[in-house]
Amino acid sequence: MENLSATSEQIEELRRLFLEKVAKDGHQIDGGFHPADIERIQNREKWLRLFIEYNDLDLKKALTQLWDTCEWRKNFGTNDLEASQLRQEYLHEGFMFPKNRDINGKRLLIFRSKLYVRGTKDMDDVKRLLVYWVERVMYREEDLDQISVFFDLKDSGLSNMDMEYTRYIINLFKYYYPNSLNYIIIFEMPWILNSTLQMNATFCATFKIIKTLLPAKAVVRMKFVNGKTLHEFVDESNMLDIWGGNECYTYEFLEEETPTKSINNNVSTTGRKVHFAKLSPTESSMSDQHSPGFTMEKGTVGEEMLRVVQDTLVFNKVGTDYSGSVEIINIDLKPITYKVKTTAPDKFRVRPSSGVLAPGSTTTVNVVLVPGCQLTTLSREKFLVMCMALGADKQTNSQDIAETVEVCGVLELKMVGNVHFAKLSPTESSMSDQHSPGFTMEKGTVGEEMLRVVQDTLVFNKVGTDYSGSVEIINIDLKPITYKVKTTAPDKFRVRPSSGVLAPGSTTTVNVVLVPGCQLTTLSREKFLVMCMALGADKQTNSQDIAELWKNTPSHSHLVEQHKLKCHLPGVSHVAEVSFRNGNAFSGSSGSDSDRQLSHLVREVHDLSESVERLDARLKRNQILFFLALLAIVSFCVATLYIVKESVDNQGYCAKRDL
């Protein structure tokens, strides 16, 4: 079954099934799927082929995985993830980077374990770095071709083994990048190099767990090699010197040659520029594709279309708010459309964030800091102003304009304006509550409570192969309300519906499903927050308007009512771990032999790790004591020699004096 190939008819059928499901169930996805993923499904057979062949030509399973992948990509922000949004010290450390190719010409994504120490890095930032490299290498540089993951375990020890990190890598490729791995190469496994019994057993047990988590197709691609056998999977011309090869390489992060990401990853580009006053900007590429109804043309005033008056966005305190503004001018002979983006969209309100400028016209973009932000960290944020020229058949419909800028992914200039705060203290300030135009938000009229949440605990039960729970919410107010559900771990749960509008007296049930790859033992630590606001008589039920309202209203606003929920999983107190997907579950609470073996292996690894750590600590203490004892002995010997020498000298002096 592994060598089955998808036909064009099967690919077309998967595309049809997905688009039909979008038309039917797409409203359940808050904000909809990312346009880039929809475009990829419509135009890239190669992407759909990966899902079909990974699921052995089962279109039902392929559809489910494709849907879940698009939902994850939208929530994670994969299509908009750029190097500037990553934690820069992690990006430049070199514990994860792509370099060279395997024996089949597939790019290597290298993990240098000895440079990664468990517990010293923020796991969310590490995950973002991993997704960035996979997206950059596989999707943008290799045109959806397979890659090989290379675990360089040379000189690594137990402190470099992180099961959470390893499990995330496995689940990422298993669930969201199917059929993407050519090889999983494990280089210089420590059991080959180390004679410590506990360490040998620990690494063996760890990789038994990893093999259990991997699908059967991936297990056969896992190759354990050392310096003598590496040439079977990486030829000598691609071997680094640290592996015994000839290439002397020191990692250095290099920016992408084409930072602009087009929808289908395979479109031609043309150079254009936006000018920031007093800056010398560099060119970047602009995609030639656009939405129907628009003709995008070159600017006619030299190489410049838009002028941004200043290169620094200065924030001043106005009342209780911190705000700044920037003036932009269309210096082209044609109308242009512009868009303003930021590295921290959750920290700023930008008005207007996009629009159309007639030739010679000017507009002022106002930026307000939203409540709850720490001012001390905001000097690191950046803003990007983008623009495109429109032809004579331009339209000013805001939805069409927004689609055009987003779909084209136009990045006119890599140089961005810095954020500067004027006369600020490093402490946080209180912010006034603001809301979107078009909504009147009022207090509830039934006492102090607008929304009733039937229970305060979200109980998860196993239904089939899934763990799910539900909570009923009731509008007990005399006015319609809008509600929203948030969680401390959005990557662990699927919430349906996550937001909406409730008429007076109406009820709805919010369903929560545990997503793949999570641990049941940590479930009780997670929390849910149900929020609501009252809407006035001029309420609108457009999902986009509701989303904008919640985006512009801080959760701690006096207009927002909050209800907290705890999580509970009955009968699961001893579960070591659960990793499940589409009917495959590994649960410590189940009675199967494989489940008990997995749970036993997890405990064994934990016990062995603790034993080795205790031995290491004892060895370090003994080394210190030995050093102190040696120092004391040397000091005693030196003192004794000195005393003897002084005694001999004194005796000689006395003998001479007697003579």
Average per-residue pLDDT, rounded, comes to 76
CATH class of one domain: Alpha Beta
Q: So, CATH architecture of one domain?
A: 3-Layer(aba) Sandwich
Structural class: alpha+beta
Topology diagram in text:
Layout: H1 8-25, H2 35-43, H3 45-54, H4 59-76, H5 88-93, E1 96-101, E2 107-112, H6 123-141, E3 147-152, H7 163-176, E4 181-187, H8 190-193, H9 197-213, H10 216-219, E5 222-225, E6 269-276, E7 284-287, E8 304-308, E9 312-318, E10 321-330, E11 336-342, E12 348-351, E13 354-357, E14 362-369, E15 382-389, H11 398-408, E16 417-421, E17 441-442, E18 451-453, E19 457-459, E20 461-463, E21 466-475, E22 481-487, E23 493-496, E24 499-502, E25 507-514, E26 527-535, H12 543-551, E27 561-568, H13 593-658
Parallel strand pairs: 2-3, 3-4, 4-5, 6-8, 9-16, 19-27
Antiparallel strand pairs: 1-2, 6-7, 8-10, 9-10, 10-14, 11-13, 11-15, 12-14, 15-16, 17-26, 18-21, 20-21, 21-25, 22-24, 22-26, 23-25, 26-27
Helix pairs in contact: 1-3, 1-4, 3-4, 6-7, 9-13
What does this structure look like?
Pfam families: CRAL_TRIO, Motile_Sperm. The protein is an alpha+beta fold. Among the domains are: 69 residues, Helicase, Ruva Protein, domain 3; 161 residues, Phosphatidylinositol Transfer Protein Sec14p; 110 residues, Immunoglobulin-like (Sandwich), CATH 2.60.40; 118 residues, Immunoglobulins (Immunoglobulin-like), CATH 2.60.40.10. The protein contains 13 helices and 27 strands. The strands form four sheets. Strands 6, 7, 8, 9, 10, 11, 12, 13, 14, 15 and 16 form an eleven-stranded mixed beta sheet that branches. β2, α6 and β3 form a beta-alpha-beta unit. α1 packs across α4 and α6 runs parallel beside α7. About 18% of the residues have low confidence.
